[in-house]
Amino acid sequence: IRGGGLFVLLTAGAAVFGVAQLVTDSLLLPEAYRDHFGIVFETFLGEDLRITSVFASAPRFAELLAFSSLYLIYYLLSAHRNRVASAMGLVVALILMYHTYSRSGYVLLSAGVVLLLILIAKRAPREVSRRAAWFVFGLTAAVFSLMVVLGPGWLSLDSSITDSTSLDARFGHWDDLLGEFGEMSTMQVLLGTGRSAHYSFLSPNYFVVDNLYLASFLYSGLLGLFALIVLLFNLGRDGLALAQRYPARWIPFLAFGGGLLFEGAFVDNHNTVFLVVFVALGMIGFDETIPKDRASCRSCDPSRASWSLSLARPSRPNHASPTKPK
């Protein structure tokens, strides 16, 4: 992927800085930076520091870690990848993910892993072992089941992970919003209010909705929510088609996008979702560097192609015998 080296470098730098925060038990950020960007809940409800790396919010760093982890898992299952480096990177990413204490990040990664393994099992290329994918799926399910059965009393967990204060607050906000729906005008139902929960940002009653779908309805109404669903549906359909041709690029990407939609039930992560949508649309639509006629392509190995893709079917080469000159 062209430009992928820069992204990997920046991601590795963010991970290294996150490890430094974990080891030193400090954000290692200047006070002016922390005041300007407003680090969200440095310790939340527990006493342990939430790792944020260079982000202003631990959940945003958790999203980057989940994105990277899904690709690392795919590479780990791939026969033609450096499995040792992938395994080491995955271990670091998971350790940092845990210490973000972002439960929405945990939901994102869990849903993404399930979707990734399902996509691999259904659309796996030859280079990926389906047996290994199902083994990882079973191992993940077993570990999760043990955590649920044994309970937090057996595990050494930060108190912020098991505390339900923020979740109870979300349920209370959603109940208040549902009660106000009857007071909305027809135009507000169709086009939205343009702001969260009917309150301006300066109002003392303002709060973050923390639900992607409810927030989309409030911001842009039923029409905006319907448009978002249609866009995501078509993007997923085209992405599944492209996953057959470019699995190493698209299967982890689709798993991450699907995980964001699960995470969206608990956070108002519309900015992240829209960013992923725009990136995916750019990957689908920008096709200048891949020839549509594969007969004129000297090397059509998808792994060596640039990041831009084309949905247009390549024209078939003409195999008819050339006419002999008289």
Q: What's the layout of helices and strands?
A:
Elements (H helix, E strand, L loop, with lengths): L3 H21 L6 H7 L20 H20 L5 H17 L3 H21 L6 H21 L8 H4 L2 H16 L5 H6 L20 H34 L1 H17 L6 H16 L41
Uncertain segments = 287-322
Q: Roughly how many Å is the radius of gyration?
A: 23 Å
What is the count of DSSP helices, taking H or I runs of 4+ residues?
12
Morphology: globular
Could you give a short account of the major beta sheet?
none
Total number of beta strands: 0
Mean pLDDT: 75
Order of helices and strands: HHHHHHHHHHHH
The end-to-end span amounts to 48 Å
Helix content: 55-70%
Q: Could you say which structural class the secondary elements and strand pairing correspond to?
A: mainly alpha
Strand content: under 5%
What is the compact description of this entry?
By secondary structure, the protein is an all-alpha fold. It is about 60% helix and about 0% strand. The longest helix has about 35 residues, at about 210-245.
Key attributes of the depicted protein:
326 residues; mainly alpha
Explained architecture:
By secondary structure, this protein is mainly α. It contains twelve helices and no strands. It is globular, with a radius of gyration of 23 Å. The termini are far apart.
